[in-house]
Design goal:
The chain is mostly helical. The protein contains 6 helices and no strands. The chain is globular and about 60 Å long.
């Protein structure tokens, strides 16, 4: 009997793609009248609300373990990347900026190989090249 393959990651991944794609549009709309700093404040408010709900229902906690610093670094990376996205969207076209941000799998592929001991296969490299090629096509298309 074949082992059962779980795709429990697929629905949240697809939802991430949709919401991240929407973020480029909604942020650009907000930046018509707001500054990027104001979007950061609104984003922080949303994160705070979600964190408070998680803490209230027992879905989260604050404690320190050996890998907690990775969580702290991840939090700073999220904030930094969002700020950089808002600045970029405030100065350019969403239809060009967001596709360029889709090149991040190349960074993840290299980071996963260096820090997580994940393999880099020919198929992964081909996929990364397709992503980067798609980014170039979407960026120069007009």
């Amino acid at each position: 009997m074949r082992p059962r393959v779980s795709a429990s990651w697929l629905v949240p991944t697809l939802a991430y793609v949709v919401t991240l794609g929407a973020l480029g549009v909604t942020s650009k709309l907000a930046l018509r009248t707001l500054e990027w700093q104001e979007l950061v404040v609104w984003s922080a408010g949303a994160y705070l609300l979600v964190a408070l709900v998680l803490l209230a229902v027992g879905g989260g906690s604050i404690h320190f373990e050996s890998n907690t610093w990775w969580a702290v670094l991840s939090a700073f990376i999220v904030v930094s990347s969002l700020i950089l996205l808002y600045i970029a969207l405030g100065n350019g076209e969403a239809s060009k900026i967001v596709p360029i941000t889709a090149a991040y799998p190349a960074v993840t592929l290299i980071g996963a190989a260096l820090f997580l001991s994940e393999s880099i296969t020919a198929a992964k490299i081909a996929g990364m090249l397709l992503v980067l090629g798609g980014v170039v096509v979407l960026t120069i298309a007009d």
